[in-house]
Design goal:
Layout: H1 9-27, E1 37-41, E2 49-52, E3 66-69, H2 87-99, E4 105-109, H3 112-118, H4 129-132, E5 139-141, H5 152-160, E6 165-168, E7 172-177, H6 180-202, H7 212-221, H8 227-239, H9 246-249
Parallel strand pairs: 5-6
Antiparallel strand pairs: 1-2, 1-4, 2-3, 4-7, 6-7
Helix pairs in contact: 2-5, 3-6, 6-8
Length: 251
């Protein structure tokens, strides 16, 4: 399928990148049927962003399946009935897109490991290199029920603060970044950290914790000068896992 005439080149590129991210999230088994969501802000002054059409399974997501909505949740263009979006997805993501212009892409998941850690009182423990990426840089938000109330947005943003990753208590994970590649990188590390923690705790042995100095040092290392280059390399490498699907997801 070629790019529709009514969609700009910039928006179509964003659609293809976001569709690819949906498929990668499916590839790494971080889906929950149709009940999680990923959004991407479309470049431009309108403050519009893309979200999945509710009901499409992630491993079949296409650029044309993504719905353009404004910051109030209104579908922009197209048939509203045919472009249903997840109301809870709008509440969570619109809050972040409105308050954090540095987070162009936001991912929310309900993985088993993410939910498990979200229900543990101590939260994410600094017991793995993956977890140390988030040392002093991870937010927590208390569970308030299914995120259908617009009132929750203020509390969610207050809890997120300056961070790019958050554990939603008794719910799951949330991560974002300045691009699709950055958001994927944050999510991948947070998910792996949770997986490692669940398995370490299941072993029943006493855990070893790095020193405070090492924890802070390691967290700073993740922000070194070449971090953006590494993130780009990781994203391009991940795309090779679904390279045979490009014609499909970019349609």
């Amino acid at each position: 399928m070629s790019k529709p005439h009514h969609i700009s080149d910039v928006e179509w590129q964003a659609r293809c990148e976001l569709a690819a991210l949906y498929r990668l999230v499916a590839h790494f088994r971080m889906t929950d049927l149709i009940d999680t969501h990923i959004t991407l802000r479309i470049p431009g002054p309108e403050h519009h962003f893309l979200i999945n059409r509710y009901g499409v399974i992630f491993d079949r997501m296409r650029a044309s399946d993504l719905v353009r909505i404004d910051q109030y949740g209104n579908v922009v263009g197209g048939n509203t009935e045919a472009q249903r979006v997840n109301a809870a997805g709008f509440v969570i993501h619109s809050a972040i897109h409105m308050a954090r212009p540095d987070m162009a892409c936001v991912v929310h998941t309900h993985t088993a490991a993410g939910i498990a850690v979200s229900a543990q009182e101590h939260g994410l423990l600094p017991i793995s290199q993956h977890a140390l990426k988030f040392y002093g840089k991870l937010a927590y938000h208390q569970y308030e029920g299914i995120a259908l109330s617009l009132d929750e947005r203020e509390r969610l943003i207050a809890d997120l603060g300056p961070h790019k990753a958050m554990i939603l208590r008794n719910h799951g994970l949330l991560a974002g970044g300045q691009s699709v590649a950055h958001a994927f990188h944050e999510l991948h590390f947070l998910e792996r950290a949770c997986q490692a923690q669940v398995q370490a705790l299941a072993g029943g042995s006493k855990l070893i914790f790095p020193s405070e100095a090492v924890c802070r040092h390691t967290a700073a290392q993740f922000d070194r000068d070449e971090a953006d280059e590494i993130i780009a390399l990781s994203w391009n490498a991940a795309l090779t896992l679904i390279e045979t699907q490009r014609e499909s997801y970019c349609s």
